[in-house]
Amino acid sequence: MNKVKINGVEHPIDADPNMPLLWVLRDLLNMTGTKFGCGKGLCGACTIHLNGLPVRSCLMPLAAAFGAEITTIEGLSANGDHPLQQAWIAHKVPQCGYCQSGQLMSAAALLKNNPTPSDAEIKDAMSGNICRCGTYPRIEAAIKSVAGVQIHQPATKSKGAI
């Protein structure tokens, strides 16, 4: 029996080494925060961290996790107080919420490796995560607020005194 370290805890896993890590997390370990979206690594809903880097768990075989440090959305914060989770609330990011765990995991990896990303770096890092509700401007604003990057508000036109 192999062991996998997830969110700092070793878990004995008795499964086919080719089983996608997503199903190990969801079906065998009951960690349902990581979502199934497309099953082809295109949408980002299943994003987790493997040794600190964002990866698609739907494409990753269990064997690739042996000896690695895995972090899921459940490991980002035990009680929802991670700065990104708080920014998500403050900026009213989620609508349906389905993509949010993947979005958060991609954003967390970005900020861990680049604490003050440019607009282009944020767009690039988040480009593999699809939000069918289209909350991209709020996602970017939340990331910028945590990164300490000034959020540029669109200019408003003054209509003058009435």
Q: Which overall shape is indicated by the principal axes computed on the Cα atoms?
A: globular
CATH class call of the largest domain = Alpha Beta
**Count of DSSP H/I helices:** 6
Strand content: 5-15%
CATH topology of the largest domain: Ubiquitin-like (UB roll)
Distance between the termini: 76 Å
Mean pLDDT: 91
Can you give the helix content as a percent range? 25-40%
Spans of at least 5 consecutive residues with low confidence: 152-162
| CATH superfamily caption of the largest domain | Beta-grasp domain
CATH architecture descriptor of the largest domain:
Roll
Radius of gyration from CA coordinates: 18 Å
**How many β-strand stretches?**
5
Oligomeric state: single chain
Largest sheet features = 5 strands, mixed
- Largest sheet strand order: 2-1-5-3-4
Going by helix content, strand content and strand pairing, the class is alpha+beta
Tally of discrete structural domains:
2
Instruction: Tell me the series of helices and strands, N- to C-terminal.
Output: EEHEEEHHHHH
